Amino acid sequence: MRRIRTLAITTTVSTLVLIGWGGLVRATDSGDGCPDWPRCFGSWIPRWEIHTLIEYMHRLLAVVSGLLALAMAIVAIIALVRRETRGARGAAWACVALAPLFLAQGALGGWVVLSGLDPGVVTIHFAMAFLVLGLVVTIAVTSGEPAAGARVPAGGLLRLTTTSAALTYALLLVGTYVRAEGAGLTFRDWPLMAGRLIPSLAPDGALAMFLHRGLALAAGALIVWTAVRVRTSAGTSARTRRLASWTVMTVVAQITLGALNVVTELATAPRALHVAMSGLLWASVVALAVATHVEGVAEGAVPEAPVGEGAFLRTAGAYLALTKPRIIVLLLITTVPAMLLAAGEVPSGWLIAATLLGGMLAAASANAINMYLDRDIDEVMKRTRQRPLPGHRVSPSAALRFGYVLGVFAFAFLAQTVNVLSALLALSAIAFYVFVYTMWLKRSTVQNIVIGGAAGAVPVLVGWAAVTGGLAWPAWVLFAVIFVWTPPHFWALAMRVQDDYAAAGVPMMPVVRGDEETRRLILAYSVVLVATTLLLMPAEGIGVIYLVAAVGLGGAFVGRALLLWRRPSDGRAWGLFRYSIVYLGALFGAVAIDALV
Question: What angle (nearest 5°) sits at the alpha carbon of residue 101, between those of residues 97 and 103?
């Protein structure tokens, strides 16, 4: 089966190049470069014209891929006759079926030319191309070496990956139809459509484009959800986890290229790359689905802990605890002053309420997903053992679903009621907190909270964008204030509970560098924090009330940090942590008062 695997990988690459070149044919309007088929202007040798050469190269690449498929079929037949398939008979028979599919695909290519590039025929042609590519990828994955150890079916993960593949296939077919119809610029804004999330469907091509963007949003969200489940579920193989991460990267790249198509008004490069990336995305989701089916999960992997039955109020309380309400309150306290400063007055009550609700949902989403990802270390740490997941009051999968639904709803709500920039900023905060901080930084570097603090600083940007529709220097100064405030705030807490972090293997500053270095850094960051707060005056020209508050509150912050450095104790560390919360609320209260006065 090694030869079949090698041929399958080669054919996969060849088919991806073929699909990508087909995108170049469409992007350069070279589809009628050869108006007849299989010859080109009645000859087997093409004319020396750019559009003719582009189309003819597409046909040559199709021949190469077809010959590779024929070679796979021959090798597979020989292996079947000699009984050398070694438990991979399904892959061998799939190789046999591949050759006629390639012939059918070639015939469909001829139909496309003879039909005058009819949109329906073009869509059927691409549909068959994706089926062929999916089959080749399936052969490549199933003919490889199985994961080590005993494996059992993946169950829910398989359903997720299969659904992701099906939804992606629908997305790619609708996208093909949009290109064939020339409807790519039906809406010249992105991600909105004529300034709305749900546009009028009266213009030609509007329905297809609306469906395409809706499917892109749904497929992207489902793929991210699937990747998180795959990477965090017990017993998944290393290859399956890598495929999950790769699939997320490809869907992000594909959506970005889709946006560039609109921004550049269908420039050649983005159009061609968008088609090429569609093939890579399809290959990725198929490989992930097949790998999940073939490799399953390790036998004996720890299942979800059972969740005890409880009354409605107790269950509702557990879900509320997943959102970390106290942290949400702190985040929202920084949002309203940013809105007041941006407006120079009190914005409409509806705008404030909508921004706060959307921000609250976004923060709740990030916190719930964070609890799902950190459930193993929460069970080790004394401070967090009573949280809903280690306390078995909510199942892990339910917590993840809860957080994910909140995030989707937060984005849709902010985009519809406030503006798209605010929604995108809130979504970026969720993504940064979940993927960058929780999944990457928290367990890998002592700088985790330094970089991860950016997520908690985003609400001020959301508030500013809600009022102005854009961002300005004062908003970034407020962002910087929270960013610099986060390390001394959190390190003061970490000093008090460092034994917990050490037991959980989390490289917080006191655990890795020790108390003395942590106290020194707390003092240094406190001084930088005070200096950063003063930058708001030249950036915005804010008045005396804020200046007095910034200097007074900042001086007290530095004084407490200095006392902790010179005379360390758990009590002083805890006192600094508690004061840091009061400090942030009072400082932003001063921003609000000064903006109104």
Answer: 125
- Whether a cis peptide bond, with omega within 30° of 0, leads into 38 is yes
Give a three-class secondary structure readout of 559-573: HHHHHHHHCCCHHHH
Question: What is the per-residue pLDDT across 438-482, written as a single tens digit (0 to 9) for each?
Answer: 988 998 899 988 888 899 999 999 999 999 999 999 999 999 999
Name the DSSP letter for residue 193: B
User: What whole-number distance in Å separates Cα of residue 370 and Cα of residue 343?
Assistant: 33
54 close to 140: Cβ distance less than 8 angstroms: no
Tell me the residue length of the chain. Answer: 597
CA separation for the pair 288, 230 (Å, rounded):
10
| Residue 444: CA count within 13 A, CB half-sphere | 9
How many Cβ atoms are within 10 Å of 98's Cβ, its own excluded?
Answer: 24
Peptide bond preceding 325 in cis form (omega within 30 of 0): no
Amino acid at 241: R
Q: Report whether 58 contacts 20 (CB < 8 A).
A: no
Q: Are 446 and 498 in contact (CB under 8 A)?
A: no
Report yes or no: 15 and 37 within 8 Å, Cβ to Cβ.
no
For the chain, the straight-line distance linking the first and the last C-alpha, in angstroms and rounded, comes to 77
| Residue 136 to residue 98: CA distance in whole angstroms | 8
For residue 148, give the 3-state DSSP assignment: coil
pTM value is 0.80
CB–CB of 171/164 below 8 Å?
Answer: no
Contacts of 102 (CB under 8 A, 6+ apart): 65, 66, 69, 70, 132
Q: How far apart are CA 472 and CA 191, in angstroms?
A: 22
Give the Cα separation of 91 and 9 in Å (integer): 13
The alpha-helical segments, DSSP class H, found in 154-237 are 156-181, 206-232
Cβ atoms 584, 485 nearer than 8 A: yes
Q: pLDDT (tens digit, 9 = 90+) per residue, 50-86?
A: 888 888 888 888 888 888 888 888 877 877 777 666 6
Cβ atoms within 10 Å, residue 408 = 18
Q: How far apart are CA 109 and CA 126, in angstroms?
A: 9
Strands (DSSP E) contained in 473-543 are none
Dmax (CA) of the chain: 92
